[in-house]
Amino acid sequence: MKFSVITFGCQMNVADSNWLILSLQKRGFTLTLKEKEADFVLLNTCSVREKPEQKVYSEIGRFRKKWEQNPSFFVGVGGCVGQQIGEGFFERFPYVRLVFGTDGLYLVPDKIEELLNFPHKRISLLSFEDFYPEREKVFPEKADVSVFVNIMQGCDNFCAYCIVPFTRGRQKSRFKAEVLTECKTLVERGAKEITLLGQNVNSYGQDKYGDGTSFAQLLREVALIHGLKRLRFTTSHPKDLSLEVIRLFGELEVLCPHLHLPLQVGSDRILKIMGRKYTKKRYLDLIEKLRLARPDISFTTDLIVGFPGETEEDFKQTLEVLQIVEFENAYSFKYSDRPGTRAEKMENKVPEEVKQERLIRLQALQEKITQKKYKQVVGKEEEVLIETISKRQGGTNLHFRGRDLWNRVVNIESSRDIRRELVKVRITEAKKHSLVGEVR
Ligand code: SAH
Ligand code: SF4
Ligand code: F3S
């Protein structure tokens, strides 16, 4: 029996899909990248922006012919749109036989077996659990060299624009022992880099479902794992970033000098309406403290333009912070209405043209900064963890792709296979979103 998994959205979805694939493989199902050959297809969806429902509908629509030819074929829809639309998918598509949210994910492999045994059944797994649903422990024999480990589920922050607290439920921290076991197993099986994942990792352990471990304590313990070379985490909320965690950037050797710290906007007025609970000054203070703790630290961020009521003055505050901090990179988005959020109900929406124009200005500024930062690296020597062999090959050498300590993508040529290795590299060129290097 063959299956395919299609994944949209954030790294948490990627991690969820990876688990799902391993768990299904353990039960004897075969993963295929050719959807045409699949007996069932699972979609792991994202609803953070725009009209993702439409995209998911058209994705599911692609399989109608296949189902007409083979009535036992079915589709399962999970992730944030799965949670949001739920059984609505059953009404629209006769061949959607499973809908699930992230809290229901751990049951999916069992339920797939049930669906295969009962061809007329449809199953929805949409209830939120009041604990972190531990999943079957399945690990690949050989782990990827860089892996994600989930440390929590959900979010309690309810930023005015954001749908995540509705689609992923309340924050539920995973027990420290479970996180450590997973990290250790992955390192034993060859992982060299771990990224701890959560919507707001800085408040790890502090919800009523957690075991009380602080995020700093968790970092300390993961950092001790023998054989681990690099440790990262994402996403951090500035309001919960503690001094203790900041200090760890200067203390833990394996903690990489890069932090993704979403700013969203630079205007205090808008930050307040968004409910972000920090000011521009507090954000800049954090950046300064982080630089004191680890002078070579680099930053990336998330930005939103055109939040309801955002004026040109407000927008300029965002540009100002970009210039002060000099992020290596920024993921910038036009504000988009999400159902059920506070911002959706606000009246003073910013016109599309204004949002578009601000986005272009912001991205132009950021590109300049990124180029400046990347050019500073040219000529330097650094260590790159090789993750993959590039899709595009050519010439006499092999082409590889990896990341440096600062999470920058580096493309490298080498005459021998250097996959999974930490190699010393000299940076020779700065491209728009990546660097080029040569092995020393
Ligand atoms: N938990 C993380 C990220 C969640 S979603 C955090 O708090 O930082 C990732 C990013 O999508 C957010 O940082 C934000 O910049 C963007 N985003 C979320 N909702 C959005 C919306 N309604 N419109 C535009 N961008 C949005
Ligand atoms: Fe969304 Fe805010 Fe939670 Fe991030 S912290 S997931 S932006 S509600
Ligand atoms: Fe998208 Fe859900 Fe992640 S909305 S960004 S898949 S938390």
TrEMBL record:
Every MTTase N-terminal domain range: 1-117
Matching PROSITE patterns: MTTASE_N (PS51449), MTTASE_RADICAL (PS01278), RADICAL_SAM (PS51918), TRAM (PS50926)
EC number: 2.8.4.3
Keywords recorded for this protein, A-Z: 4Fe-4S, Cytoplasm, Iron, Iron-sulfur, Metal-binding, S-adenosyl-L-methionine, Transferase, tRNA processing
Domain Radical SAM core intervals: 141-372
Short name of any one Pfam family annotated for the protein: UPF0004
A GO molecular function held by the record: metal ion binding
Needed cofactors: [4Fe-4S] cluster
Keyword hit for Nuclease: no
Cofactor binding, per record: Binds 2 [4Fe-4S] clusters. One cluster is coordinated with 3 cysteines and an exchangeable S-adenosyl-L-methionine.
Domain TRAM: 375-440
Compartmental location: Cytoplasm
Residues reported to bind [4Fe-4S] cluster 1: C10, C46, C80
Recorded catalytic activity of this chain's protein: N(6)-dimethylallyladenosine(37) in tRNA + (sulfur carrier)-SH + AH2 + 2 S-adenosyl-L-methionine = 2-methylsulfanyl-N(6)-dimethylallyladenosine(37) in tRNA + (sulfur carrier)-H + 5'-deoxyadenosine + L-methionine + A + S-adenosyl-L-homocysteine + 2 H(+)
Gene3D superfamilies from the UniProt entry: Methylthiotransferase, N-terminal domain (3.40.50.12160), tm_1862 like domain (3.80.30.20)
Physiological role: Catalyzes the methylthiolation of N6-(dimethylallyl)adenosine (i(6)A), leading to the formation of 2-methylthio-N6-(dimethylallyl)adenosine (ms(2)i(6)A) at position 37 in tRNAs that read codons beginning with uridine.
Assembly and binders: Monomer.
Similarity remark: Belongs to the methylthiotransferase family. MiaB subfamily.
Protein name, entry field: tRNA-2-methylthio-N(6)-dimethylallyladenosine synthase
